């Protein structure tokens, strides 16, 4: 059985749980030690209706300081996965004001999946103020605002809905869209990155 290759890129604010959901899916255990990510990738095999897919998910840094690096991971992308934490309204609002804007700037035709993470905090942690938490209905509203193909909530800590999420990524990403950053834009990004590296070396 020949596998189809699908590339997904997870984006969103730092510390919303992007790395945790990928590591938990691929390693089977929750990573309790938080390590900020710049760019990393994980690949796994997903089988749907007897068809095998090699799903490669790229994990990206969430800070604005990585804004010039992130687009380098968007080459040949099939689907974007925008993540926010249900315990953080700031990360929720930025799905529209920052992350969706970045996605549509580079690849307006690539589908988006919106993911609400850390639902274990909303359901089980009684020490937090739940009034500020994002509801499922608000997640659906944001999905419509950013024109995402789907919305799903999950918990990496409880390993809840992760299998459903990755099947959804595979299904939405299986649309034969092969997107590319224009050569001129990629060239500019690379130049800016190299200049930043030189500046950092000089400072060091």
UniProtKB/TrEMBL annotation:
<comment type="similarity">
    <text>Belongs to the small GTPase superfamily. Rho family.</text>
</comment>
<dbReference type="GO" id="GO:0007264">
    <property type="term" value="P:small GTPase-mediated signal transduction"/>
</dbReference>
<keyword id="KW-0342">GTP-binding</keyword>
<keyword id="KW-0449">Lipoprotein</keyword>
<keyword id="KW-0488">Methylation</keyword>
<keyword id="KW-0547">Nucleotide-binding</keyword>
<dbReference type="GO" id="GO:0003924">
    <property type="term" value="F:GTPase activity"/>
</dbReference>
<keyword id="KW-0472">Membrane</keyword>
<keyword id="KW-1003">Cell membrane</keyword>
<dbReference type="GO" id="GO:0005886">
    <property type="term" value="C:plasma membrane"/>
</dbReference>
<dbReference type="InterPro" id="IPR001806">
    <property type="entry name" value="Small_GTPase"/>
</dbReference>
<dbReference type="InterPro" id="IPR027417">
    <property type="entry name" value="P-loop_NTPase"/>
</dbReference>
<protein>
    <submittedName>
        <fullName>Uncharacterized protein</fullName>
    </submittedName>
</protein>
<dbReference type="InterPro" id="IPR005225">
    <property type="entry name" value="Small_GTP-bd"/>
</dbReference>
<dbReference type="InterPro" id="IPR003578">
    <property type="entry name" value="Small_GTPase_Rho"/>
</dbReference>
<keyword id="KW-0636">Prenylation</keyword>
<dbReference type="GO" id="GO:0005525">
    <property type="term" value="F:GTP binding"/>
</dbReference>
<dbReference type="Pfam" id="PF00071">
    <property type="entry name" value="Ras"/>
</dbReference>
